[in-house]
Amino acid sequence: MIKFFMQKPLSDIAEEAEQRQLNVQGDLWEAIAEIGEELLAFDARLSALEKQIEGGGVNNG
Asked: Residue 28's pLDDT band (boundaries 50, 70, 90)?
C-alpha cells in the first residue's frame, strides 16, 4: 500500500518555528527575571550580614 503524506507549506513551518523561538525567548527572559530576583534577595541578605559583622552583632566564638 502506498501512503501519501501532505507536507505543510514552508510558510507554515516557518511560522511555527518563529512561534517556538518566541516561546523559548519568553521562557528565557522569565528565567532571567527569576534569577535577578533571587540575586537581589541574596544581596540584601549578604548586606545585612555584613552590617552585623561590622557592628559586632555576630558572635564569632
From this structure: very high
Contact 10/19 with Cβ under 8 angstroms?
Answer: no
Q: DSSP letter string over 38-60?
A: HHHHHHHHHHHHHHHHHTT-S--
pTM: 0.61
CA pair distance 54, 34, nearest whole angstrom = 30
- Measuring CA to CA, how many Å separate 13 from each of 3, 6, 28, 41, 51? 22, 13, 22, 42, 57
Query: Greatest CA separation found in the chain?
Result: 84
Residue written as cell 527569576?
34
Whole-angstrom Cα Rg for the chain: 26
